[in-house]
């Protein structure tokens, strides 16, 4: 995601108006915040699923998958 912001800045930087570059900077910052803020879902569910798999608790693994999928879909719809 940071590479995307750098490419956008490089492309928009060739335009004459500084407002375009400011808009890209703000948009890139917001997108990066959303991307990294919801990285907790991947990291949190991964650790809990590893513990459940290690203890051979299949119902808990299914519950974690379901919870993670529901949270991901809910955030994706917003």
TrEMBL record:
InterPro entries: MATE_fam (IPR002528). The keyword Cytoplasm does not apply. This is Polysaccharide biosynthesis protein C-terminal domain-containing protein. The chain crosses the membrane at residues 18-38. Signal peptide: none annotated. Pfam families: MatE. GO terms for cellular component: membrane. The keyword Transferase does not apply. One of its GO terms (molecular function) is antiporter activity. Keywords: Membrane, Transmembrane, Transmembrane helix.
